[in-house]
UniProtKB/TrEMBL annotation, chain A:
Reported function: Functions as component of the Arp2/3 complex which is involved in regulation of actin polymerization and together with an activating nucleation-promoting factor (NPF) mediates the formation of branched actin networks.
Database matches in SUPFAM superfamilies: WD40 repeat-like
WD repeat segments: 50-82, 140-172
Protein name stated in the entry: Actin-related protein 2/3 complex subunit
Organismal lineage: Eukaryota, Viridiplantae, Streptophyta, Embryophyta, Tracheophyta
Gene behind this protein: LOC107018592
Origin superkingdom: Eukaryota
Pfam family name, one: WD40
Automatic annotation (TrEMBL), chain B:
UniProt organism field: Solanum pennellii (Tomato)
Gene responsible for this protein: LOC107009509
Pfam (any one): P16-Arc
Function per UniProt: Functions as component of the Arp2/3 complex which is involved in regulation of actin polymerization and together with an activating nucleation-promoting factor (NPF) mediates the formation of branched actin networks. Arp2/3 complex plays a critical role in the control of cell morphogenesis via the modulation of cell polarity development.
Keywords from the UniProt entry: Cytoplasm, Cytoskeleton
Source domain of life: Eukaryota
Localisation per UniProt entry: Cytoplasm, Cytoskeleton
Protein name: Actin-related protein 2/3 complex subunit 5
Residue intervals passing through the bilayer: none
Family indicated by similarity: Belongs to the ARPC5 family.
Length: 375, 167
């Protein structure tokens, strides 16, 4: 089994994040709170509850180096949480939004974080030492709809966004006094804040889940039309590939290496995509091996009840017959996937997923021999 | 000026559809219903918002769909035909990398292309179901079952999400 541990924390989980040492996990149980659990002696214990938001927390990110948590919520606010002797202390970040904040991510250097929102804007927030204050700079009038996902390029300047207007865009977020012009950034250091580097018009419906490959050479994002898009050499001469999926659409993606991507979504089962030597991406297989539901053939109505159960995210509809055995690690839509590593690495073999079924599942590819070639 | 261009365009599309219709009729007379369906789906849907063109095209597609007697053999017969489509797609930017592939690799990719083609036919099936006509709905549901079995649920999603090419 590729899934090494399955733990149901809540009825439903909107997002989750790992502490730098991977001993603690923060997640939102689909309400205004953030729960932090610690693993002690093989048991998860609730150690903190972060209460400050008024509405559902839609994004959490825990920084690797500075041990800070940033949360965003539908209440249009963001908080940066610092761990002090008394517990987690919040600092309000004024985002100046008039719609819900939807996603958040720390930049690789952790001196900035980006927030995507329903107000068709992206906020780039940075810390001002003299005022002891997080400042938000907005990228406005670029998106025609809600920003559903954001991803930082490893160079700490480029930011990719996906939106419900179907486009994927890449912006420069260079901020004077925060970013320094060094050679590692290449030509992107010459661009101004908010300048659009490229706009990708591959998808004609909602786009979700964008990620850069570890090197930053490839960009992947998904569409609600059961497609996944791979873009090489992002810039004026970008080369794009669209891969049609046989099954239900994806919600989020993660690069495990330059040549392997895992996509998660409405099929409740992670999908593995790999690139061959020529750089051509294709679907390889599902990660969760499920036994074929032989029992379901015996019962006339079981296929229907399984679908019904899936629809409502409840298992009680199928509890009466044997379909339960054929279920995988997740039994509802997966909406979040994160690498399980103590620092940013070029390849990861372990990652976690969370979804609307309230489970957090840890996956390990160490024993999946057919996949190790691609790492 | 714009209206004249639109009228020319209309005439052109109708002529093409009439030509297609004649071709389909002759194929049906030769008992080649799969060929007829392929011809009906080719080059469609016409990129026009004109309802008359859409209706004319639909009548032709409907004729081909209804002529299919054996749904099972339809799907087993469709596969090898897709080499032609591959050649057509070769010029597309997205598939540029196919040129460097071996014959076997191309064969592996054919399924993907078939799925793309299925989106088109799926869209016509929904148009057929919307008519409410009993024999049409029967036939469309039969093909729909086999199509989703073969091409998965993804093609339904792509069909629903496509707002650019309505039939």
């Amino acid at each position: 089994m590729a899934a090494t541990s399955v733990h149901k924390f809540a009825q439903c989980i909107s997002c989750h994040a790992w502490s730098p040492d991977l001993s603690m996990i923060a997640f939102c149980p689909n309400n205004s709170e953030v729960h932090i659990y610690k693993l002690s002696e093989d048991k998860w214990e609730k150690v903190h509850v972060l209460q400050k938001h008024d509405q559902i927390v839609s994004g959490i990110d825990w920084s690797y180096r500075s041990n800070k948590i940033v949360t965003v919520s539908h209440d249009r606010n963001s908080y940066v949480w610092n761990q002090e002797a008394t517990g987690w202390v919040p600092t309000l970040v004024i985002l100046r939004l008039n719609r819900a904040a939807l996603c958040v991510q720390w930049s690789p250097k952790e001196n900035k974080f980006a927030v995507g929102s329903g107000a068709k804007t992206v906020c780039i927030c940075y810390y001002e030492q003299e005022n002891n204050w997080w400042v938000s700079k907005l990228i406005r009038k670029r998106h025609d709809s809600s920003v559903t996902s954001i991803a930082w390029h490893p160079n700490n300047v480029l930011l990719a966004t996906t939106s419900t207007d179907g486009k994927c865009r890449v912006f420069s977020t260079f901020i004077k006094g925060v970013d320094s012009k060094d050679s590692a950034m290449g030509s992107s250091a010459d661009t101004k804040f908010g300048e659009q580097i490229v706009q990708l018009d591959l998808c004609f419906c909602w786009a979700f889940g964008v990620r850069w490959s570890p090197s930053g050479n490839t960009l992947a994002y998904v569409g609600h039309n059961s497609m996944i898009y791979f873009v090489d050499e992002v810039g004026p001469s970008a080369a794009a590939q669209s891969v049609a999926i046989r099954d239900l659409p994806l919600r989020d993606v993660l690069f495990l290496s330059e040549r392997m991507v895992v996509g998660v979504g409405f099929d409740c089962n992670p999908m593995v995509f790999v690139a061959d030597e020529s750089g051509l991406w294709s679907f390889l297989r599902f990660l969760d091996e499920r036994k074929s539901a032989s029992s379901s053939a015996k019962y006339g109505g079981s296929q229907f009840s399984e679908a019904f159960g899936k629809f409502y995210g409840q298992s009680k509809f199928s509890a009466s017959n044997n379909v339960e055995q054929s279920r995988g690690a997740h039994d509802n839509c997966i909406n979040c996937i994160l690498p399980l590593a103590k620092q940013r690495k070029s390849s990861v073999t372990r990652f976690t997923t969370s979804g609307l079924d309230g489970k957090i599942v840890t996956w390990d590819l160490q024993k999946q021999e057919d996949l190790l070639d691609y790492l | 000026m714009a209206e004249i261009v639109e009228a020319d365009n209309y005439e052109g599309i109708i002529t093409r559809i009439e030509h297609k219709s004649r071709k389909i009729e002759s194929l049906l007379k030769q008992y080649k219903p799969v060929e007829a369906l392929k011809t009906a789906l080719e080059g469609s849907p016409p990129k026009t918002k004109d309802e008359r063109c859409k209706s004319a095209n639909w009548i032709v597609v409907h004729r081909a769909i209804m002529a299919i007697k054996d749904v099972d053999s339809l799907f087993s017969a469709l596969d090898p035909e897709y080499y032609d489509i591959l050649m057509k797609w070769k010029s597309e930017k997205v598939l540029l990398k196919f040129q460097s592939l071996s014959f076997q690799e191309i064969a592996d990719k054919l399924f993907e292309l078939m799925v793309l083609q299925c989106i088109t036919s799926c869209r016509y099936l929904y148009r057929g179901l919307s008519t409410g006509d009993r024999p049409t709905c029967d036939q469309c549901l039969r093909i729909h079952e086999k199509l989703t079995e073969k091409a998965g649920l993804g093609c339904i999603l792509r069909c629903l999400a496509d707002t650019v090419n309505p039939v």
